[in-house]
Amino acid sequence: MSTEGHRQRPVPQATPDTARFWEGCAEGVLLVQRCDACGHNRLPPAPICPRCWSRESTWKATSGQARLRSSVVFHQLYHPAFADAIPYTIGLVELDEGPSLYATLVVEPGISPPEGARLALALELIDGGVRLPAFRPVPED
After folding, report:
1. Shortest CA distance to 45 belongs to which of 28, 72, 23?
2. 114 in Cβ contact with 84 (< 8 Å)
3. Which residues face 109 on adjacent strands?
4. Residue 61 to residue 100: CA distance in whole angstroms
5. Would the pLDDT of 22 be above 80?
6. What is the mean pLDDT of residues 32-44?
7. Fewest C-beta in 10 Å: which of 45, 53, 101, 139?
8. Mean pLDDT value across residues 93-113
9. Is 102 in a helix, a strand, or coil?
10. 2-7 and 41-42: which strand pairing?
11. CA 47 – CA 17 distance, rounded (Å)
């Protein structure tokens, strides 16, 4: 796992449900909540399991390995903080542990990896020392 160069971006605000997730990112680890009752891994963090409604969960580190399900290259500026990044690529990333999330893909500008590409965690450093999940393509074995 690597940390990409610092960028000025909107800073996410931690809530009681998400604080441990952001702490994990700061530590260089992508965490998911694992339901203590049914074993379901979930993102985004939530106070109850969407499968069995249990309120008991444990934070677990992921491998940081994933597969790309879909992606889009943004050529239009939607927020001034992203002016230096146009074009940038966002992907729907499915973690090997099950949950999916949208994240920046660390690729050449304007490039979108093929669907199904293997990815590895590459945390992006933004203002306030916050690290956001981002992913980079890795060669297939």
Report:
1. 23
2. no
3. none
4. 15
5. yes
6. 97
7. 139
8. 95
9. strand
10. unpaired
11. 6
Helix (H) or strand (E) holding 92: strand 88-95
Buried/exposed 54-63: b ≥16 CB within 10 Å, e otherwise: eeebeeeebe
Instruction: Provide Rg for the chain, Cα atoms.
Output: 15
Give the pair of three-digit tokens for residue 89. 């690529």
What pLDDT score was predicted for residue 114? 95
pLDDT at 87 over 70: yes
What is the reported pTM?
A: 0.88
User: Angle at Cα 70 formed by Cα 18 and Cα 10, nearest 5°?
Assistant: 40
**Tens of pLDDT, residues 52-68:** 999 999 999 999 999 99
In DSSP notation, 36-88 reads TTT--EESS--SS-TTT----EEEEE--SEEEEEEEEEE-S-SSGGGGGG-SE
